[in-house]
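job 3f2a | input accepted
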Amino acid sequence: NGNAGFQQVLERLESDPVCQRLSLKSFLILPFQRITRLKLLLQNILKRTRPGSEEEVQATQAYDALEKLIKDCNENVQRMKSTEELIYLSQKIEFECKIFPLISQSRRLVKRGELTALDFNTLSPKWKVTTRPIYLHLFNDCLLLSRPKE
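job 3f2a | predicted structure (150 res):
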């Protein structure tokens, strides 16, 4: 998004009839879609092969290898999504001191959400309750509390 030249070239390529007006994202997704179709094809082949035959052994090996590949692909996609979330958070969160590196290969965002903090003012004659939003970011290795800039 930050590179105007790349955006222009991408728009020109996506509008080209050869690309059939498909976006770059659709071309990146196609290999994953083909892998899942191959899994369905191998399932059908396994249903139609004779039990105990050499074809069944080979089809089972191919199916197992394909299943492992799909699992690895899904794990890598999840890892990339998690890294993208960490990058997005690191751009939005401003630390008072830089002692906490938010982006890490092993760190994953597990859950995040907004809560309301209640502040009791005990100095006034009447107890005064004020509220302000705070955000919780639960990672696999720590809990981060943040508040919006005022």
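job 3f2a | The chain has two domains: 4-91, 109-146.
job 3f2a | closed
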